[in-house]
Design goal:
By secondary structure, the protein is mainly beta. The protein has no helices and 16 strands.
Length: about 190
């Protein structure tokens, strides 16, 4: 993993630093995602997170180390950190494996089911973080999973634009062996005909 993405578009109640390697001396609080992951032996994204002290703006509490198992060593999949629609959550992506971690209670996390996520896109006005997979898209909101589209493609989803609450894109259709356009309502995830 060489280049890291950092997107802090959403307001957030934490500070985070991507470490070049696991520290020789681990902090008192260390969490592995997913729990007891054998994948960590293949590599991991190490993120030092400092959650905001409850009720005190710009005052940060005891840090924790988030060790996020690596999905794939491929430049085509993202690696980095994103602010999420919920200010308490951090989104850490390690070679396409995607983890949403509650920084106030780091034992609470969600791993996005796509293996891998191919693109992460913050839609601040819609308060959504999009996770693009090979065949569909997941939207994550302030309260967790907002929606997941049905199948948009047989292999490869490309977002071509977002306007007036509608996401437009294309995906490859196996039967016709052609790119097929699609439109998705951002409020519901419903695919338009």
């Amino acid at each position: 993993m060489s280049a890291f993405a950092i997107d802090l578009s959403f307001s957030h109640d934490w500070q985070a630093e991507i470490l070049p390697a696991r520290p020789a001396i681990l902090p008192a609080r260390h969490f592995v995602y997913p729990r007891d992951a054998e994948e960590v032996e293949r590599g991991a994204l190490e993120v030092l997170v400092r959650p905001q002290t409850a009720g005190k703006k710009d005052e940060y509490g005891q840090p924790f180390l988030a060790t996020c198992a690596l999905g794939f060593r491929d430049a085509a999949v993202p690696t980095g950190i994103w602010a999420a629609p919920s200010p308490r959550e951090i989104c850490a992506v390690s070679g396409g494996y995607t983890y949403l971690i509650d920084t106030a209670e780091p034992e609470r996390f969600t791993m996005i089911e796509y293996r891998p996520v191919l693109e992460v896109r913050a839609l601040v006005d819609e308060r959504l973080l999009l996770f693009v997979g090979h065949r569909s898209i997941i939207a994550w909101g302030a309260n967790g999973l907002a929606w997941e589209t049905g199948k948009l493609s047989d292999e490869g989803v490309a977002i071509t634009g977002i306007e007036n609450g509608v996401l437009r894109g294309s995906g490859w259709e196996m039967i016709s062996d052609k790119e097929k356009a699609f439109a998705v309502e951002l409020g519901s995830g419903k695919i338009r005909d």
